[in-house]
Amino acid sequence: MSTERVGAAPDGTPVDRWTLERAGTRVDLLTYGGVVQSVEIPGRDGTTANVALGFADVAGYLGSRGPYFGALVGRYANRIAGASFTLDGRTHRLVPNDGPNTLHGGERGFDRRVWDAEQAGDHGVRLSRTSPDGEEGFPGRLEVSATYALEPDGALTISYRAVTDAPTPVNLTNHTYWNLGGAGSGTAAAHELRIAAGRITPVDAAALPTGELVPVDGTRFDFRKPRPVGIGYDHNFVLDGDDPAAELYDPVSGRVLTVTTTEPGLQLYTGDHFDGRPYGPGDGIALETQHFPDSPNRPAFPDTVLRPGEVFRSATTYRFGVR
To answer: Which of 33, 127, 162, 258 has its CA 20 to 30 A from that of 117?
Structure first.
């Protein structure tokens, strides 16, 4: 494990990069945005490649809007309709950053903050920060941490923890885009994907959930058996609770990514809006483990409200292999 100073945020706060290595996996992690900058793993022939999309330096993340490459996303991952919600009879107005809606925590979500970092065991880093009451419009002072650790087999586990002094919705995820052929190698549309989900939460033209839970049978959303992922997806899948939740396979390199999680949902996004700087449409696949989008306005969805005295916990493991 090592750390180095690699730049600064717009306000001058220093940004460090931590490097974790274990069992053939090497991960670079930035304190800016909790970004997973790179994940290097071997392929079938033993050749190592970085399979996580990102930028070569901190400046790329400072200037980027939209892709959220590798970022720690919060206070609420995905969309909240109308940039508002009502909790315990009080309406809270958020900062809109996706038309009239709030996406991934607002204009300056967790992906735009510098996190405190400390070593966690021999193969992990714990990032932490305090999100003050009213940040981006969210109520409550939220103390939050995310621990990134490499397991004995080289798997990457991200464990989240949060406590609050007032009721507030919490939904955290990591937004890494995967290309198992190597970042910058071209489209990942031919990767084979399996998702253990028999339903999705369909969306309207604004990418907001309709509130339904619709079976995937006979639709292009049925990934219960592996098939090429293609493009055209930005949808939340309702996980069945089976392990792994998802598996991604590149037939060319032989690399395999399996995802296990404590979360009830997984957002599949195929990067259709990439503009070629530096990646084109379909060059990476995001598998965002999460609670459902717009849950604060959807009482029928799994609850995302954290209250004083409770502890928010969530964990997702990304395991790498070849075949």
So the answer is: 258
